[in-house]
Amino acid sequence: MSKQLVAMETLFKALADSTRLRILGLLLTGEVCVCHIHESLKITQPKASRPLAYLRKSGLVDTRRDGLWINSRLAALPAPPTPPFAAPVAPALPPIRP
Questions:
Q1: pLDDT value of residue 71
Q2: Over 70: is that where the pLDDT of 88 sits?
Q3: Which residues contact 42 (CB under 8 A, 6 or more apart)?
């Protein structure tokens, strides 16, 4: 299988979960602390951490450690993956404030 096909498969698998989509929708607003993700989405910390780990592994999310806190943000992706997933995800989710 070609690298491009594998990359697309990984992208679509990452987008095939409602919790991961909600997290991506929240990250569209900018960098967010993991503690704020689970509070904003009203899910438990493990229900936020596992999808975040999957999104990191798939290359959609980057993290930055700030002391004890871990901040997550959308990864800088080469075009065209970012617009195809950001455009349909943003209007499908209600506004979420960190």
A1: 93
A2: no
A3: none
Taking the complete model, does pTM exceed 0.90, yes or no? no
Is the N-terminal amide bond of 80 cis, ω within 30° of 0? yes
**Alpha-carbon gap, residue 66 to 63, rounded angstroms:** 10
The helix/strand/coil state of 53 is helix
> Of all residues in the chain, what percent carry a pLDDT higher than 70?
77
Are residues 49 and 34 in contact, defined by beta-carbon separation less than 8 angstroms? yes
Distance CA 36, CA 57 (A): 21
| Residues 98 and 40 sit within 8 Å (Cβ to Cβ) | yes
H-helix segments, 15-81: 18-27, 34-40, 45-57
